[in-house]
Amino acid sequence: MSASEEVEVKASDVEVEASRLVRIVAALVLIVLSATFLIGVFDIRSPKGLDPAGPRFFPLLVTTAWLIFSIAYLVEGLRSPKTAKPVGDRSWFEPVAISGLLVLYALLVVPLGYMLATALLFFAAARVLGSRQLARDIVTSLVLAIVVYVAFTRFLDISLPKGVLGL
Amino acid sequence: MTSLSVAGDLLHGFGTVLDPMNLLWAILGVTLGMLVGILPGIGPALTIALLLPITFNFSDPIGAFIMFAGIYYGAMYGGSTTSILINTPGESASVATAIEGHKMALKGRARAALATAAIGSFVAGTISTVLLTFVAKPIGSLASHFQATDYFAVTLLAMIAVTALVGHSIVRGLLSLTVGLFIGLIGLDSLSGAPRYTFGSLRLLDGIDVVIVIVGLFAIGETLHVASRLRSTPDRPAVLEKGRLRTGYLNKSDWKRSWAPWLRGTALGFPFGAIPSGGAEVPTFLSYSIERRRARKKGRDEFGEGAIEGVAGPEAANNASFSGVLVPLLTLGLPTSATAAVMLAAFQIFNVQPGPQLFENNSTLVWTLIASLYVGNLILLIMNLPLIQIWVQVLKVPRPLLYAGILVFACLGVYSLSGSGYEVLMALLIGVVGFFMRKLDFPIAPVILGVILGPTMEEQFRRALVISNGDASVFFTRPLSLIIIILTVLALFVPYLPRIVARIRGTQPAHQRLTFGEDD
Amino acid sequence: MARSRTALVAAGLAVSLLASGCSALEKALDGGSVAGDFPSRNVEIMVPAAPGGGWDLTARQFQHVIQEDKLLPGRSVSVVNVTGAGGAVGISKLVTKNRKDPHTLMITGLVMVGALTLNQSQITVSDTTPIATLTAEQEVIVVKADSPLKSLKDLVEMYKADPASVSWGGGTIGGTDHITAGTLVKAAGLEPSKVKYISYSGGGEATAAILSGDVTVGISGMSEFEEQITAGKMRVLATTGAEPLTVVGKQLPTMKSEGYDAEVQNWRAIVAPPDLPDADRLRLIDFVSKVNASPEWAEIRKKQGWTEFFKTGDDAKHFIADETTRVQALLKELGIV
């Protein structure tokens, strides 16, 4: 088995991708979040009387468990060997750009209309993900957007925004 | 009801269903179901609800119900396709399938995974329909005996029994689970009406739909993950192992490893479908856990790298759950899942009232529906085995286009839930969480489990306590609850029993085959 | 470096948008529409809930009648589902986004009045322009067939003796079923705050809880329990409307006939956005009256077990205002807000 194939097989989640530092930071974030939510339990309106456990009981249980496991995760991270290195160089550009596209899509799908916004999303996402065949990308994005729009509004009666095209 | 008269009624039902028009409805339903099962977020419940107005124009309700039944199990099967090929389950019942199924696809075994899913669905669908045919009434009465304490005990049992989902690291697995449980807490508390963790937002009062969590964690999370690796892993189609074998898409060992999980999956799916708040998800997770434990005991633990048992079991379980769901629906008029609730509405539109008298009053309708399940299952199999060749072409789509397409359908699925871009942002936020979970090697499935089981568990626990005015002994004084709780304790300790006994005796255990769910 | 700059901009955009607060964001995400004389555009009926429920069914049947009878020549009617918080998301969209627009209508009902109260919403149904109330459904109070409670009086006596001994099972908290329980207890001159109400999602769950003996008494719409009643698995203690209902040839008692002066109807109405020009309002009332008078609509009402409950304009407005006041007070007394 060649080296590249090995990467392919193990790709999803077997390998350790994150460095020790990243894991420690993640553990700290989890601790802060769970502690905040644990404190937040006491802001939950709790009508007294008829419900013995009440709406605070499970949140208390869950956030406490979360906090405990987060601390355990921090300890695990601190104890891990410093030498372990993350695999490969990972790029941050694409995930950030895709996230940005989705935010724009969420904002623009109603004003622009489903077809236009979706065609733009598909086209932009394909380009960000490395597609370099302009004609193919444009055609695919238009066809996909139109087919989906027609199929859903005509056959399933799901209403999708018409937007500027007014169709 | 004697089995002879059952056979007669059923034959009559077959007579009706084999009418060309009705066959057409069945084919249409199965096809539509498969499509919506593949699309993330658009599940069978929504589809049937949207198709209801169209069926007003049907003069004969039988055609409509044949189609609805087709949609349901078509969707159950369709969900497995995307789970296996691109690790993006469309609904919660396919999450367990994704775990091993996608690993199989990565190893070039997509065809075998799809085939075991299709055949498993057929086997489970057929066996559970036989069960529905002959034991509908006794099983149906089960649902009307379950009380809050029993439901709580069942969810507890399920939670404990699926610990195998936790994966390599206990800490990370449990963290995933608690995050899922937390997500389940968000929204208006159903029992007191108090808002919890809604941060003043109206949208959060309803909680976060499990579909958004699934689409976010899987479809969007996976896309972001793949996006970050594009440069280091060049775009090339996944390798597929050689096509047709003499034994179909499955080789001899696949058949040998699949048949028992199919049967066990069926045995789990059917009863869970039949009890309220059982649904299709819990049995898939249970089936996965049991198969995993058994494999480990046999010393052939391929789980985590694409074990076929992990696809065969859950896929059988989710299909079997449908016939299970029909049991209380037809015999008691009790819908135990969202789709069943919509189907109940459909029955009522046609002035058919499911319930104790349905089998007497609308015998033709019921038996035709049951007959259509046999036929529909067969149609599903016949259509899907050849379709596997087409589905696997998805793997050859250039990755930029494939993942751009996944984003489009993910957005469509969550957008159609509420008709607002807000859900898209919510799914993105969860997708970012899913991205980091992948980076940090956290298992994803326990989150879904937490979102699904958490709220039920809390609701039933608190209902039981309200009803008993705070007396916690109710969990141990009802025989049914007590039995389930004892089973739970066994599920916790039995796997370790041989070791404990051996420790006491001071010897090595002879064989470690004692495990929960053992049946041979 | 152009790439990483783009990434930075995108990241900045994402973060600032997420941070700019939910309500501002919700505004941007939903879009709006413009006004004009009715009917000068296609009409949209908003269902403030997911497909498949009672409001959705009402809207889709309404749409069906308009199309069948061609009541809007040259224009189409579409149904749009805006889910969230028992209708709070839908109504806030109608009130803030569609002011003065007669082409966006919304289905509402008693359930929304309860949900808005429970959510402590600033918006009430009275903030819309009521066009007409359409239908009403009676509630029914049942027990399991082998329950020792034989009449509504037995139930009230049991509650009087020990409120904690009665578990009331029904739908969403603050919904019609819960309101019914509170109304009955109040009409009997007892304390509603002691009502041990257990909410279930959907009729199926509640039916199972009644049949398994988990709860003492169940409350829901007639359609949920009808089959069990016909099959003799449940006994009706009372229905809640003014007119007695008949099931399998037997006339059922009402709360009134049992001596408790109260009435609860799960009504549904159709409303328009606020600040509607009077001319448009009158045209809409006229239009909805046409639908209501259609034989098709009568047929649908019969099929669904809805009774006609048609009040238009100011009558509808006053009715909705009265119901709002009553429900707000009752939910307070039930101790949930």
Automatic annotation (TrEMBL), chain A:
InterPro entries: DUF1468. Pfam families: TctB. It comes from the Bacteria. Keywords: Membrane, Transmembrane, Transmembrane helix. Residues 25-161 form the DUF1468 domain. The chain crosses the membrane at residues 20-44, 56-75, 95-126, 138-156. Signal peptide: none annotated. This is Putative tricarboxylic transport membrane protein. It comes from Kribbella sandramycini. The lineage of its organism: Bacteria, Bacillati, Actinomycetota, Actinomycetes, Propionibacteriales.
Automatic annotation (TrEMBL), chain B:
The chain crosses the membrane at residues 23-52, 64-86, 112-136, 148-167, 173-192, 204-227, 325-350, 365-388, 400-418, 475-497. InterPro entries: DUF112_TM (IPR002823). It comes from the Bacteria. Residues 23-449 form the DUF112 domain. Keywords: Membrane, Transmembrane, Transmembrane helix. Pfam families: TctA. Coiled coil: none annotated. This is Putative tricarboxylic transport membrane protein.
Automatic annotation (TrEMBL), chain C:
Keywords: Signal. Residues 1-24 form the signal peptide. The keyword Lyase does not apply. Coiled coil: none annotated. PANTHER family: TRICARBOXYLATE-BINDING PROTEIN, UPF0065 PROTEIN YFLP. Belongs to the UPF0065 (bug) family. This is Putative tricarboxylic transport membrane protein. It comes from Kribbella sandramycini.
